[in-house]
What does this fold into?
Amino acid sequence: MDGVETRMRLTVLGGFLGSGKTTWLRHQLHHGRFRDAHVVVNEAAETPVDDVLLGKSSALTVLAGGCACCEGRADLIAALRKLCDERSRTFSSESRLQRIVLETSGLADPGAIVEAIRADAMLIHHIVVSEIIVAVDGLNGLSQLASEPLGRRQAEIADRLVVTKLDAADPETIARLAATLKHLNPGAAIGGAINGSDVPPPDGTGVEPADLPDLSGERAAPIFATRLALDETVDWTAFGVWLSALLHARGDQVMRVKGVVRTPAGRLLLQSVRKIVQSPEILPGQDDDASREDDTIVVIGRGYRAEDLRRSLNYFAGLR
It folds into this structure.
């Protein structure tokens, strides 16, 4: 395109399940990095959770119930076309939308999303993909790169890699992860983050990268999301026992647990990544959240049956 670029800039934020994308994005929004951007959040589960953290930070569109790279692609294209249409009706150049940030599902391939946008006859004239940022879990990144074809594809396509949870992993693991990422994607810039805040990047200089197996022919069992509804009869002590037992028994299969529940202590955001349960975060009560599906837990993983999860939860937590 000749002259000054007039298309909206799109930042794609990806990363495997539990990598810390939302925590990082929330911190960036809070400090004004994506000022005046419209945020599009894509969640694989039908019940969205991440928008609880981002809803008050920016203009927001939520796409739930399918990954934007496959099942949810049509919804993503429709949402982006709507933003383009609204922008074209804005006559003042100063008030026109200039940037979109797309936080993808942890099951999404950013490359497929970029291809879909570039292949759309309308979007190609209104949107330019300016950067692909991929969050990499400092604790679980090496094992994911070694075993998850999707996690490796996400890292390979990034313009910038953000290694998260630098305070939770030992320095040797972080250094080897940084060296492995640099080997996989020599052109990507590598940064670091703790609780969403940018910190000096990890240094893998002089460290041998991990010897990763060939995953080109791998056909891993599909990852799926299971929605578990709670009600007022739940025994919260028993629920904690159930969650601990689930993660202990199936921590390598249950990759992510997240949800917002109403308890005597208030609205709690519950999250876990594999076997690690994060400290519950108390969320402010919001009168305009009547339509939000609280008291719902989303479990994302593979190698088990959804009905078995529901049966065990009902048994342990005393649900009707």
